[in-house]
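2024-03-11 09:14:02 INFO worker-7 job=invfold-0412 stage=load source=structure_tokens
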């Protein structure tokens, strides 16, 4: 039986938009019959090229998404799981303010519309984890359904240990690893990390979903590894993307 936990992190630049040409045709090459479970693009709007072939995970990325057309998208979405804030601790949002927004705007989505809510996804550094602990304390009366996790590194054992540590702090919630990747510049090391983490997360019942970063034509920044890209500059998929789409368990 296929374990469907792999969220496809489909960059917004893959979608055609004003002033830029995407690669929407690439979505037709995604195998949705395998372990890919859902699609997310760090935004509230659904990529039209998805065409209903998998659940979409809309995200209230930062404060800008709390009003206007973005918030209308959230209020009107038929999708079941909503992500809240992406690395807020690096974007000037306090845990207190996020908790206020949680109570005022996010909780009604669960109370009145039955949505499942994901906590903010913070970086794995001490600042990010302190922010998350502060937030979770402030919303303990109405906690999230899932805790969001980010992890970038080179050591698979350290990654597993970190994720286990988050679970031990918040054992009542399943985790959604909304971004994870090896940042090694050695391709074989990247594959080893990806294989070990994917196989472990597939077999760990308290992990709801996970997304390897990232399916985009350009390397996002100097921090992430070009060797971990899931898409080539021309929009075709890399061998690592092919492995994530088709292999379960993944093979070294």
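2024-03-11 09:14:09 INFO worker-7 stage=emit residues=252
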């Amino acid at each position: 039986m296929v374990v469907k936990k792999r969220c496809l992190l489909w960059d917004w630049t893959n979608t055609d938009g004003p002033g830029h040409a995407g690669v929407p045709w690439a979505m037709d090459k995604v195998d949705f019959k395998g372990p890919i479970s859902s699609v997310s693009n760090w935004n509230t709007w659904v990529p039209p090229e998805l065409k209903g072939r998998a659940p979409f995970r809309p995200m209230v990325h930062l404060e800008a998404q709390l009003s206007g057309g973005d918030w209308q998208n959230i209020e009107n979405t038929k999708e079941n799981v909503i992500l809240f804030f992406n690395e807020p601790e690096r974007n000037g949002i306090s845990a207190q303010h996020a908790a206020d927004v949680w109570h005022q705007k996010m909780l009604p989505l669960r109370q009145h519309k039955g949505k499942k809510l994901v906590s903010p996804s913070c970086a794995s550094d001490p600042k990010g984890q302190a922010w998350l602990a502060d937030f979770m304390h402030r919303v303990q009366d109405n906690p999230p359904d899932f805790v969001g996790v980010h992890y970038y590194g080179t050591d698979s054992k350290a990654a597993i240990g970190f994720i286990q540590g988050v679970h031990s702090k918040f054992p009542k919630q399943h985790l959604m690893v909304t971004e994870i990747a090896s940042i090694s510049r050695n391709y074989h090391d990247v594959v080893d990390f990806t294989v070990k983490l994917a196989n472990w997360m597939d077999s760990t019942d308290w992990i709801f979903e996970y997304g390897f970063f990232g399916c985009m034509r350009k390397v996002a920044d100097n921090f992430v590894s070009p060797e971990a890209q899931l898409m080539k500059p021309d929009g075709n998929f890399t061998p690592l993307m092919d492995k994530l789409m088709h292999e379960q368990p993944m093979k070294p």
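2024-03-11 09:14:09 INFO worker-7 stage=report msg="The CA atoms of residues 183 and 221 lie 11 Å apart."
2024-03-11 09:14:10 INFO worker-7 job finished
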